[in-house]
C-alpha cells in the first residue's frame, strides 16, 4: 500500500490491537471520528463507512488507473463538513454566542468533555487566535458593535503601550486589543443530550469565559504554581514588572490541550509571541511591552497583549481548569515549562511518579517531559494536580539509532548546544550571550555554537537569580532556548502527544520544513525515501525504558506517513491531532496551512513541496486501523469546510458523539460573496505515478456554518453522530 503498510505495522510493534488511549483511565478521551450508518453498504475492506471522496486518487479506491483518471478529472470542493452517508452534525455553539457574562470566542480548538452524569457534562473549549482579515470583516455582523479598524493603516506598526491617553488613537487601539483578547482563551459550557441524540446547552452557573483580559478589570486572575512564581514575585527584576506578583491576567493563544484522568482540562498557550513578547531577560523577567509593536494585519492583530501592558513571561504555559468549579479561572503550572505548547499527554499509574509530555510547535521545537517528585496514589483523585507543583522538566535527545535520553532543564545541566550543521536549514537560536541585554540570538555556524559552549559551562551560568528557585524559574520561563543550549533535539513541529495504556507515547510531527525559528535534526526527521527536508510530516512512537515514567532513557520508532501515494504517502499532508479510539484504532486530522488549500498546481515543474500541498484540497480526517487485515491502511473519513481546520476532536464515553471544533472558516478569502467560486487546474498523479490534469471548482471564502448566501463564516463547535444514534465504530 502507498502508506507503506508493512512499516506501519512495524511502527506499531506488532501489538497494535492492544493500543488504547491512556490519558483517561476510563478511555473517556478516546477520539474517533464517526462512520457510516449500519444500514449503509459495507465496503469490501470491512469498514463500517464508505470513505469520502477526496480530490486526490488513492489506492483504496479499488479502481484501475484509467478509471481513476476519468473519475478524478473533475472535482468540486464543498463549503461544508463532508461526512460518510449515515452521519450528520449539529452546531452546539458559534463565535459570538453568549457564554456566562461574555461570549463564545474565535477559532475554537481543543475540546474536553467531562461527564457529570449520563448524557450531561461540561465542554471546555480553547479559543486560539484571531484571523485578522475575516475577524475584522465579520466582527460588526456577529458581535453587533463597531470598532475603528482604520485607526492605523494596514500593517503599520506602532508602540501602542506608550501612547499617551491624550492621543485619540490610544482608546481606539485599546478597544480593538481588548475585543481581540476577549475572543481568545478558554470557555466552559454545560450541555446535555436530548432523546433524539442532539446536544443542547443548559446554561449552568459554571458556564464562564477565561479570556485574554480576565483579571484586567474584573479581578478574575489566573494562578500559578512552581518556580516561575519566584520570578513573578521578585522585587528586583531586570526587566518589566506588571505589579501583579504571581497573579496573571487571563490566558491567550489557547491551541491544543488534554484531559487529565482526575477530571480537569488542560489548555495549551501556543503562539503567544503574536500577542506578547517571547524573549526574556536572564532572570526570566519580561521585556517592556513598548518593545512589541501593535499592528493590524490580514493574518492577525499583533501585539494586542503588549498594548495593554501584559507581561510576556506570564504566557506560553499549560493551564489547568476544573470546569465544575465556577470560581476556577485557571492555574498555570510553570514546572511544565514556557514555550509554544501543543497537546499534553499523561502517564498516570498508581504507585509511580506522574509524567506529562508536551511539544513546542515551532520549526525546531522540542519534545518535553515533566516528572513529578511525588507519586500517584489514586489515578482519579483531583489531588494529583498538586504533583505538578514539584518535579523536573526534561527535553528529549533523539539518537538516529532509535534510542534517546532525557536532559534535565536544571541549573547544573551542562551547556552543549545543538550544532547548526546538524539541523535542516542550518541555524539554531540560543540565549543571547550578552546576558544583560537578554533575549536570544541566531547561530548559523558550528564555530559560534562552540564559542557559546566555552563561554557558559552550565545552564546556571546562563540564568540569574537570588535563590535556586529564582534561577530554576528563569530557566523554565526561557525553556525553548535553554533546551537548545543544553543539546535537546530540535524537531519537526511536534503537535500532538498521546500516551497509550501501555505507556507508549505517540507524537505527531506536522512538518519537517525549516523556517525562521529553525529546523529539525536532519539525521532523525527524513521522508519515506530519505528526503530532508520533508514537508508532509511523521508520526513517532516513544517508550521510556522499563515502562517507567521517570526513566531517563527511551526508545523511539518513526513512520513517514504524509505525502502522495505515488511517492509512498497515504494521500494527506501535515498530520496534526492523532487520537486512539476505544478499540485501539488511530484517527488523525490534518493541518495544512490555509493559504495552501486548493492552491493551483497547473504544472509540476519547479513546484516546491510546500506549494504542492494544493493538490490535497481542504484539511481532512482519516481512520487508520491498527489491528486486523487492514491494519496500517488509511481511509479518509471527513473533509472540512472552506479554509478550515478540524480541531479538538473528542469522543464521548459511550462513543455515540464526536465533538469537533471547526476553526477559521474563510480565513484567506473571508466571507463568500454571492456563492462565488472559480475553476483551477491541478497536475495530479494516480497512485502508480500516471499524470493527468484535474479541473477543480473551488469556493472563494466561506459561509459556514449558516451556509446561506453572504452568511458570515463563524468558527463553531459541532457534535457529529450517526443518524441511527448507534455507537461510533470504525470496523465491523
Describe this structure in words.
The protein has 732 residues and is α+β, with helices and mostly antiparallel strands. A hairpin with a 5-residue loop joins strand 28 (575-580) and strand 29 (586-590). The chain has one domain (5-130, 183-214, 249-275, 315-409, 486-722). The two termini are 21 Å apart. The radius of gyration is 24 Å and the shape is globular. The chain has a 9-stranded antiparallel β-sheet with strand order 17-18-19-20-21-27-26-25-24.
Described by strand count, sense and barrel closure, the largest sheet is: 9 strands, antiparallel
Distance between the termini: 21 Å
Envelope shape: globular
Average pLDDT, to the nearest integer? 92
Report helical residue fraction: 10-25%
Radius of gyration computed on alpha carbons? 24 Å
Q: Tell me the strand percentage band.
A: 25-35%
- Given the helix and strand composition, which structural class is it? alpha+beta
**Number of domains as seen in the coordinates:** 1
Assembly state: single chain
Could you name the ranges where pLDDT drops below 50 across 5 or more consecutive residues?
1-6, 13-44
**Care to count the β-strands?**
36
Instruction: Enumerate the strands of the largest sheet in spatial order, edge to edge or round the barrel.
Output: 17-18-19-20-21-27-26-25-24
| Tally of DSSP helical segments | 10
